[in-house]
Design brief:
The protein has about 150 residues and is an alpha+beta fold. It has a domain of about 90 residues: Rieske Iron-sulfur Protein, CATH 2.102.10.10. Helices cover about 15% and strands about 30% of the residues. Strands 2-3-4-9 form a 4-stranded antiparallel beta sheet, with no helix packed on it. It has a 4-stranded antiparallel beta sheet with strand order 5-6-7-8, with no helix packed on it. Strand 5 and strand 6 form a beta hairpin. The termini are far apart.
Length: about 150
């Protein structure tokens, strides 16, 4: 007695994805993942937004009277609204955690989503950030600007 031949599956009426479609979707998914990473702040700040120990910023003459200076490596912005009066703020944007990239005309700018802050007060001038830059204590000691918790 012979066994019956195995049945072959019926042809599917569902369209199958072409190789091109699969590769296109994979590329789009990868690009979406990069976009999500950029928006998550993963490329921005690493560590706390404000110093946890004193930070030596160097000579006070580097901060112009009536202006401000970005200390990108230390993630700080220091302004001098009047001669000898210093104010410091975190340079970490309160929107997505990116480090701001420039100070021009009294405005601190974030490159990630366009937020702008007042360099003298830390207040939000343009969103999407909704909170001001956190203030950081700063003092003049031994001819140097020192910022952080013990300043």
């Amino acid at each position: 007695m012979t066994s019956p031949a195995p049945e072959t599956p019926a042809a599917s009426t569902e369209p199958s994805a072409s190789r091109r479609t699969v590769l296109r979707c994979a590329a789009l998914a990868g690009a979406a993942g990069l976009g999500a990473t950029a928006c998550s702040g993963a490329g921005g700040s690493k560590g706390p937004a404000v110093p946890t120990a004193p930070v030596d910023l160097g000579a006070p003459a580097d901060v112009p009277v009536g202006g401000a200076r970005l200390y990108r490596e230390q993630r700080l912005v220091v302004s001098q609204p009047a001669q000898g009066q210093y104010k410091a703020f975190s340079a970490v944007c309160t929107h997505a955690g990116c480090v701001v990239d420039k100070v021009e005309n009294g405005k601190v700018s974030c490159p990630c989503h366009g937020s702008k802050f007042d360099a003298a007060t830390g207040k939000v001038l343009q969103g999407p950030a909704g909170a001001p830059l956190p203030e950081v204590r700063v003092k003049l000691a031994d001819g140097k600007l020192i910022a952080g918790p013990d300043a």
